[in-house]
Design brief:
Elements: E1 11-15, H1 18-31, E2 38-43, H2 59-66, H3 71-78, E3 81-83, E4 85-89, E5 97-101, H4 114-121, H5 135-141, E6 159-161, H6 164-177, E7 181-184, E8 187-192, E9 199-204, E10 209-211, E11 214-217, H7 224-229, E12 234-236, E13 245-251, E14 261-266, E15 269-275, E16 280-286, H8 293-302, E17 313-316, E18 320-322, E19 326-327, E20 330-332, E21 338-339, H9 347-360, H10 369-395, H11 403-410, H12 415-427, H13 440-449, H14 466-485, H15 490-497
Helix pairs in contact: 1-6, 1-9, 5-14, 9-10
Amino acid sequence: MTDANPGPIRKVVIVGGGTAGWMAAAAAARYLDDGQRQIVLIESDAIGTVGVGEATIPPILGFNALIGVDEREFLRATGATFKLGIEFVGWDTGDDRYMHAFGGHGRDIQGLAFHQLWLKLRDRPGIGGIDAYAPSAVAAYLNRFGLPTGPQTAPLAYAYHFDAGLYAAFLRRRAEAGGVTRIEGRITRVDRDPDTGHVRAVRLDDGRSVDGDLFIDCSGFRSLLLGETMGVPFEDWSHWLPCDRAVAVPTEPSAPLLPYTRATARTAGWQWRIPLQHRTGNGHVYSSAHISDDEATAVLLANLDSRPTAEPRQLRFKAGRRTSMWQGNVVALGLAGGFLEPLESTSIHLIQTGISKLFALFPDRGFSAVERDEYNRLMGDAYTSVRDFIILHYHATCRDDSAFWRHVRTMPIPDSLTRKLALFREKGRVFRYDDELFGISSWVQVLLGQNVIPVGHDPIVDALDADRVADAIRQIRAATIRGAQSLPNHADFVAHHGPFDRKNEFAK
């Protein structure tokens, strides 16, 4: 029988630091510390973090605002630059490129989606590619960036590139100032309640015991609490996402300082390039079934834009997620709950999603099954929708130049993605379900970018005067280009808005 008055959570224990742990701690310090609730984070300096995730998507602005971060301070502390989207190079034929830009493209006319109008009129003179109607894409290719200067200035949709280690250190300072207690130590044992199976305490290598009511597992791939202790199984998605390794290396800053991430397809995976103020992040994500570690490293080092500043670092992973993210009194965030390769820069967002859903369903010590099940449903949907979007990049290709690309091009795909592709190929229709991360504009940009062209368009478009619509579309294109051209150079804007404070480089 459930206790009718189980009482509030009085002690939250976060196991693990890194980006996930300190994001959770900073948010908890802001919203969970009511003067009676204690928030503790346990980490060991002897245990490294993955720390290569440096690119984000626009919801990070909401998280930073939620915890009261000043953007200029954030840029100075983390070496951040602005990100307007991701340029994909070689994902369809090997010599193609397109931009998945943040924000929408064009504007709807009489309630009809812009891309439907574009599909009908794209072959007319002066219409051009759909990239030309996305303000963030046009600004990115011109290497421009700026914030609104008045009510008449349309804002760009943007996110950031930043040093993940410096971001964690930045959040740590804020969390500790907000009352979070950090405990240094390595966990050697987990004690569970014999009746409920809940985690009662964790024991450290020096003999100390840290008890708690709610435990947040940020222990990385090990998944110490959710996986090892609570026994929640891992759902393997590697049959859809076969890339299982990465090699990463930082290089000297590259010029020009571009406001976008680049993802270049290679014969057995892809290579990232992420420009920060003080360095450039580079990595090669690949399938070990199709290329050796040494060969993958050689590919990366042969395709750098500037001189390496450290030795290449190898990472191993498996795409998938725990079948539930909340079990008993344990909630997992980040790698402890699941992993999807960083192709669309979603890792930090999924941490943010986990935090926001946990706060929205924050339990008492009764740990209601209804709240837990809803959290697991929401997080499961979040991971699944991102999974399908990433699979799309691999599957929607014409590449036939390696065993890797032949495999991903012809492999069976999830039914949920099959339906989306079929609808789009027919008349360009895309539907967004529940609170899916990627909206219609994102799906349209990637599908068209990889040459998935519908055989038709929405027939309702035919009711409009085609000549008048074409004129309107050309005006939208011209206005989009003029707006981007009026913006400052990206590097100049960063240097004025938030130049990197190099003393932070050694304060991780």
